[in-house]
Prior knowledge:
Helices cover 31% and strands 28% of the residues. It has one helix and five strands, in the order E-E-E-E-E-H. A hairpin with a 5-residue loop joins strand 2 and strand 3 (25-27). The model has no long low-confidence stretch (mean pLDDT 87).
Amino acid sequence: MTDYYSDIRVLIDPEQSSPLTDGGRMQDVSVILTADDPDDGSYELRASAITLRPEQARELAFALLVCAEHAGQIEDRA
């Protein structure tokens, strides 16, 4: 089953960081998916969230850009 979320938020929460041995901090990136309440009587989706390390967030961003480019090319041909 596929769930369709209507809103995506991405944020950096300073509270979700960890100290590093060199004095720096490891900062995570949060991705939060939410959905409006359904008007058609179907079930309500609960918010879904994931916390990514910076390298994971970059990989996701790149994958989204590749898919968006491909989808745009398909639309242009239609």
